[in-house]
Amino acid sequence: EIRMAESSSLLEYHHNAEGWGPPANFILKEMEGLPFASFHKREKISKFYDLGQLQFISTKAAKAKQPLNQKLAEEEDKSFEQFEGKSGVIKKNKRPYNTGKKAAFVYAPKRQYQQHVRGGKQGKAQVKWAQSRMQAPPRVSREPSIQYKNTWELITELGKQHLDKLYRVKAPTTIATAGKVYQFNTKFEKCMARVPTKLAESDIAIPNLAKIFGDENMIDLATRDDLQVFASDYVLAMIMTTTLSVYPWDLEIDKRLGKIFINARDAIAKKFLTVDENSMEPPPENNPNHMNHPAKLSKEAQMSNHFFSTQTLMKNEHNLEKENPFYQTGSVKKGFIYQKFELEGFNMCVRCQLDAFVPGDKPDQVEFVNVKAVNEYDPARKNNWRNILDKNRPMAVSHVNMVDISKLSKWALQAQLAGTKRFKIGFISRKKMMTKEQNQKQLHEILGVGDYAIEEIAQNVNLNYAKCWGTLMTFLNCLRSKDDGKYFLVKDPNRMVIRLFKDPEGDQDEIQANHLKINHLFYY
Fold this sequence. Notes:
Layout: E1 2-4, E2 11-13, H1 59-64, H2 68-78, E3 82-83, E4 90-91, H3 110-114, H4 120-134, E5 153-158, H5 160-163, E6 173-184, E7 197-198, H6 216-221, E8 229-232, H7 233-240, E9 250-256, E10 259-263, H8 266-269, H9 294-311, E11 313-319, E12 335-342, E13 347-354, E14 356-359, E15 366-376, H10 385-388, H11 393-403, H12 405-418, E16 422-430, E17 444-453, H13 454-460, H14 465-480, E18 485-491, E19 498-502, H15 509-514, H16 516-523
Parallel strand pairs: 8-10, 8-13, 15-16
Antiparallel strand pairs: 1-2, 3-4, 5-19, 6-11, 6-12, 7-17, 9-10, 9-18, 12-13, 14-15, 16-17, 18-19
Helix pairs in contact: 7-12, 12-13
């Protein structure tokens, strides 16, 4: 041990003649009187070697020192016998899981599965299922939904540990309503899988209901001083379900004079509805041109929802306060309600969608409902909806709850934002396997329609409203502290992470070209 002397600049050296290291009776003055901190039995203690007294043990001697559990395992293996039923021979085999070693699980070959399953078609099905379980699904490396620019500046990165926070919000206040809401035709609730109903086409255009800059009512509300954040129920549901989503997405954010406007591009709005996103066997992503690619299925789900919500409406209408804000894109048969949420330090205006209404308890009372549709893209699979929907509908609903957690959670959050209480969900399936030449609009059928409460759907997918609002508040609090400009919120394609970027080049030309009305409202 070498250390500086207190009275001089010379070094003191303490020689240890018995071995390596400092002498046993040597203690630093700084360490005198300190209590000894013993190790806990769970802590990992390193090994110390005395290089002067180390004895090297040969490999043979090391192998002779076997642990006790391995010796017991070998003794049990001696008495273990396996009987072959066909040949009548008794074989002595060692069990791989009882060797005392950390070995990987060894999958048995096909012939060993056949010894324990029944014969016929049922036995072959069990063998096929066991072999499919041996092959893990390939890991897919997805690309981001938007191309990053070199000029973008990374502001922050939020992971699951930042987003999993709880926040409870008060009941909203209705600011305004717009459009017309039509009555839902309850006759469709009698649809059955054995006598399916054809899904009719509709000439009504599908607008981007996630945008807010094309909404005249939202632009008028932007002049109010008591509102700071403006968004649609689509984009808020997408942000709230960040920890449940698998596929990538991105959102455009414009901040002007302290007011925040959140929008979604047309390409993202078309991918809002996913199919089997949370399934253990998701749709294949290796071929973008395949009809079962996630992008193709999202487009199919969007059209099915649009056609179903249009086909199930009656002519009875309920007029709201203002005109339909999307009258330029076609006669959209939907109503809209503008809700005000009072949050910590700011208020948020949300435009929510109203799909239909049903008569209430009183003659002049109506109850707004959400009309949605779930898709089945493989009618040839086992336990398809055509076979089980009439006999065992809870089984079909349970399957949807497992494979579409993200989509059902978005619908439940949209309903909570709008203040609706019930769902009308249609089960849509392909009439037959489609080819590229066939038109997918004409090959769908309605197999059944169910009426479900919003809380029932949220409970089935284990949706925590407080955690979803905590995710949104974490993002908004981060954005409110930033300067004015154009931002992009991007969901990582392969991780549960969202990143906030700032686009310095988009502050002048792009915003002034696309959002002229907002700029005119603020600057002139």
